[in-house]
Amino acid sequence: MNIELAKELLSFHSCRNENINDSRWENGFLGILRPFQGELNEKNFIEVMECLKVLVPEIQKENIDKNIVSDIMNIIHFTKIWTSEGGMLTRNNKLTTEQTKYLLAWIDIIETCFIYLLEDASDIAFTDYIAYCNNEYF
Hints:
9 helices, mainly alpha
């Protein structure tokens, strides 16, 4: 994966890409949550994290691409709102307790990684993700 593809994929995962007819839009991280069909896709989380790995040099630039920030923040923000008490996924009893646990863990890992990358701490940015991949996060 190269930088341009990583940016494009993030734009689909955040539902910010204007090409709403592309299946990546409705099957991305946020896309599968609205409307939620009952299944999470861990591959979306992994793809977002792999995009972050590719985008490390971009994120650590003095002037970061606003679209990268917007895409990551949309993924974090809307997932938090939709899974919060009274959010569309909890209000309608769409998520199981286990699904909520995973969604919140995924956005916590994404958020922590992104913050560390913004602070030039790439040496520890992916620690939680590595733990998750090694079944050591929970």
